[in-house]
User: Fold these one by one.
Assistant:
Number 1:
Amino acid sequence: MSKISVKNDTLAKILDRYDKDKGQLISILQDVQAEYNYLPREAVEFVSSQLDVPLSQVYSVATFFKAFSLKPRGRHTVHVCMGTACHVRGAAQILQQMQNEMKISCGDTTEDGKFTLESVACVGACALGPLVVVDGEYAGQMTVNKVKPLLEKYD
Amino acid sequence: MVTLKIDGREITADSGKTVLEAARENNIYIPTLCVNEAVAAYGACRLCMVEVTRGNRKRLVASCLYEVAEGLVVDTQTERVVNIRRMVMELLLARCPNSSEVIDMARNLGVDKSRFQPENQDNSCVLCALCTRVCREVVGKSAISLVSRGTDRQVALPFCDDSDACIACGSCVYVCPTNAIKMEDRGDVRIITWPSSAHEFKMKKCASCGSHFAPEKQIAFMMAKSGLEAEKFELCMNCRP
């Protein structure tokens, strides 16, 4: 996977949007994540120095929220629902098939940077279970056989 | 000044004080792990739970954070309080099954065994955050913080490897109530071992006797803070005039 270069002027623009306000740390990190799809280490360090917030505290925030990732993420995020309703209809097998197809374990990103695979406790669409959500799009009534065709729709 | 009752005793305390402070001033024992007068109260360990009664309402509060008030009735030894403390102790014991400090404290509260399954036999960190709070509030460096959440939460340097901000003063080691952070001076290096990682820091050599007496970064920090010139920091304690 090609390494993303972090540009300080891109980050400076984001910081200016919030007047370099320490209280807006989470919003700033969200914008940085939107820019790079994850939080590059250099970006976290730059934000810390510009806001004059200790790096340990920025790191603490960045690791606290599930929405932030310090590892590069794929272009598409696949959430496999592991809620009770999906679980009893075989979510574990769906997740296993996903892992086999992508050749990664849950929480990781594929070699080619295409997919990030994650599990989620419940997305509240239990009638559709077992359910997989790709980039916010719901794919219901999943079966092991439907996994490969679903993934092939994305590039 | 307000008047309150703790365990049936009438007590006066300055308003703004916490129930824990008022109790301690009057020699009433309330167990704690995360309290240290050097830093602000935090309410992490939940061992200082007491029952407060206001009017007809009884509730459990953390006494280290709850402020005294006129007419407040506090009980530190009711069945409910003792039970909740024992429960907290059992949870801490499951978290730190081999920490002698936690084991001793549990025994004092009548807890010998935890009903919960310990996950990590080697862990002795209770996540009271005294180390990170001291680093931030007393030392002023914020070199370490609590990272991640839930079962992954731990004390760590940024990215678990960036010791830039750390001056190796050892305050975190000193303040830890369960000895979860270790420090060793080995000749010209000081090694600090946090639950997440260990790091080496260079020690300064005494210009006279040649012994290594303090971390170089700590001396640089003290020099900047005091405004004294470098030659004041050349000698170790024993060689100073």
Number 2:
Amino acid sequence: MIYTKDLSKAYNGKQVLKIDELGIPKGQSFGLVGNNGAGKTTYFSLLLDLIKPTTGNITNNSVVVDKSEDWKPFTSAFIDESFLIGYLTPEEYFYFIGELRGQNRADVDSLVSQFEDFFHDEILGQKKYLRDLSKGNQKKAGIVAALIGNPDVIILDEPFANLDPTTQIRLKGIIKNLAEKQGVTVLVSSHDLLHVTDVCERIVVLEKGEVVKDLETNEATLKELEAHFSGSEVV
Amino acid sequence: MKLKHFLNLEWKQFFRSASFGKSIAINILMIFFALYFVGIFLFLGIFLHKLLGKINPDQDPLSTLNAFMFYYIIADIAMRFFFQKLPVMSVKPLLTLPVKRSKVVNYVLRKSAFSFFNFLPLFAFIPFSITLLTKGYPTASVLAWLLTAIAVTLIINFLNFILESFSSERELSFLPVIVLVGGLFALNHFNVISFADIVAQGYTAIYDNPVFVLVPIAILVALYVINFKQLRSKLFLDSSLKTKTTVVNASNMDWTRRFGDIAPFMQLDLKLIWRNKRTKSMVMLLAIGLLYGLFFYPQPIYRNMVFMYAFIGVFSTGFFLINFGQFIPAWDSGYYKMLMSQNIKYEQYLRSKFILMIMSVVILFVLGIPYVYFGWKILIAHFAAAVYNIGVNSHVILLGGSFNRKKIDLDKRAAFNYQGTGAVQWLIGIPLMVLPMGLFGITNWLAGFEAAIAVLLILGILGIVFHKKIMKFITQKYLNSKYKMIDAFSQDS
């Protein structure tokens, strides 16, 4: 589904990301972990064509993302709060995104209604603008908006940060369901090793912009990751 | 925390911002304007004594000047409100640091005292005072008079501070200043209370008895204290963090459906305009734009200056176009990344803005039809100007938007945020208005009124005919600067 080849990004000659080859098959739940500055958000931004690659490219379902815009209809993302439109209510925002993705109001309503317990009665019908919601609730709205329009690829940057424990657990359920049952390719980044190992079938560790580990998730993965990040590598 | 730290922060903010290049260009232009005004004031200051003597030979020039002081003061208040930019400072990061609140407030207030608007009058008052001294007026009196003039300038400065902070919380932000200035002027004009005489007597009293100079100084100190208290009280975290939750009144705006595929963007733009304070007050300003002609047309002098018709026509029908258009696409800067990752056609996005501007031109023209009272020629000129706005200016301003690199933070509600009231905003409108005025004026002078109207009409119609082609070109420009815009809009200020 997503194929990255010879990709690199440099700012003023300083390399921040370099991935020689990385293929993500369809329907995989893919986790990206790494310390601050490891290049997680940079990679996602390149995937969404928000910044220009210095070399190489990413192919999304055989569309080269920085050449054509044809990847947009089947790809959606929530990177940060700047994806929200502050002066809309959550409902209006969902409808707006829905229209951009070719969904009518009824489609959007039926999708959103599946997430009522995820919203915990704090999002819908509040008659509040998104800018007046708390950070956590803004994030919930943004994540659900990314699910509108049956995308094949969903990109979530740090989805667990700022969320309360109940919502974190629910979100994990949602992501698992998307990948396992609906065949959606989900890309998630996180600092929380426990959450990613819970959710993702495959975990890639970035360090200073390079892939240093590429793991199929199993019982030993969490231990291995913890060992890696604490600096005491077990062989 | 020393003063130099504050200055250091601002210095960095200026030089490290994404819009730095553009700021430089605008600043250079602003410096030219500043020098121009300094020149005028200096000239006035040197020759004022002679001039006043000619205007009113029976009276002492100083008394003549004092009689004008009231008008000078209210004009200054009005000018400052629209053009003086109050110091903006992002205070939230400072609140948790060991910086005394009073220090922050003092810094902001004192900084405002160093505004160009406070120095400008000195270029007139100082040479004038020197002239007075050389003519043998008593030194103590002249110095007291000069001191009063300076104090009054600063009083206006701090009064403007109060006005701005008062207005920024209202919907009709410009209303208080208009009521104040208009009210004072009307009361004076209709001889209810003759402020002009009172002010003149005040100045004369200080001149006669320099001890009275303490009065304006006391007022100045009092205003400073009021400002200090007012700003300090705003300087608490909860007041800037406070979420003033407005209850939404949502409407479907189904009528936008008839615009087809651009309907979602039109709805978004309309919500943008109605739900944000800054855009809303811009709409309220439309009234001023519409009535602008009334400043000129009732006076026969202007009615005979035919080239002014084009200027007023472009201004009054294009008021929204200029004010809204120049911030495309910065209005959407807060969520620009999201828009760029969505399945949108750039051309649709731009067309929505375009249609909105066109509608505003048409509506403003229709509302301006009563100008026909001042003559058919005016209406025809306004029509030509409206066509020119639709065909030429709308495209020019959209094209200009592709160079936009400055973020607008619509959600910001912190204290000291008076974003959007500055001289720069008006600067951009000048080529849009001066060019058609020049074309119109020259053709009118060379070939007559009909030809001049034809020139504007033809240019406008050409723009409309080639609309599709032009939009394609503009869309490409936006696409080319996509990465740069995303980068600039994700930076703060």
